Amino acid sequence: MQTLRSHIDAQIARNRGKNLFHPSRGDLFTFLEGTADWKEELTTCSRNEADDLVAYVTDRSLEAFFQVNPYLQVGSSSKEELKEVYARLLEHFRRPDPGTSPGLLARRHYRELQEWLRKTDPSSERIFGPLPAFPPVPVCAEYRPDLQMALLGGDPSDWLEPVLDLGCGPSGALVIRLRELGLEAVGLDRCRAAAPHCLTGNWLEFDYGTSTWGTIVSHQGFSNHFRHHHQRTDGDYLRYARTFMAILHSLRPGGSFLYTPGLEFMEGLLPPDKYRVECRPVPGTDHSVTRIRVQEP
Question: What is the pTM (predicted TM-score) of this model?
Answer without folding.
Answer: 0.91
